[in-house]
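hey so i finally got around to running the thing on that chain from the lab meeting. sorry it took forever, my laptop kept dying and i had to restart like 3 times. anyway pasting the input first so we r on the same page abt which one it is
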Amino acid sequence: MTVLVTGATGHTGRHVVAGLKAAGVHTRVLVRDETKAPDGVDVVQGDITDPAGAADGVDAVYLLWPFFSADGIEKALEPFRGKKIVYLSAMSAEDGGVWGDVEAAVEKVTGDWTFLRVTGLATNALAWAQDIETGVVRAAYGQAKRSVVHERDVADMAVKALTEDHARQVYLVTGPESVAQADQVRLIGEALGKPVTWEEQPPEEAIAQLSGYLGAEFAAGAVNHWASLVDDPEPVSLDVARVTGHPARPFAEWAREHFS
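ok and heres what got predicted. didnt touch it at all, straight out
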């Protein structure tokens, strides 16, 4: 079989490529910059919004849709009609939004789909990198408890779904526990060998700060979600262990890999 990986140079995609290669699967990547493409794979330069050339002859695709709107998803999916699609989705897809819209569009073009709904990626903590250098992370809702997942666990799930029969399965992909954001910062500090503390930021200030790159609506939604997690932590799923055969990697392991 031939598998196409979109987002192949990103946080999860590069690990999906590595996993497919290790499994002996013929792999093709769709990248904007050919110079950044991984070695040992077929490379197609292009964009997920118009993937026709990359889709020709593939049996399955690892799909990322890195936009805040599902506009254009029908055109992007048409070349994959009838093929296996493994989509990196989000837990909030059950409530609609862009992730729910993309899932619905995927179901219209194939019956062989798998949705990997993540609560959040541990790599989002890299957004704190500049603050971490100063020893103080200023953000909203430090006691929001998140079950963020290591990108390698997402990739392991994707490789299983791409190479085995996981048709019409929806998996909740999480870390092994819910960890408060302030504790995530503390664990990063431990990985660095220096104290890093949390400074609580007013929600209105956080929304204004995040709006610059998320847009006002997404920024408000994110901050309101964190507020809800103070008393109602993100769920913890065993789907990573069930599908991959190994437990989900803890946040402390992610922190050591990225900051030590």
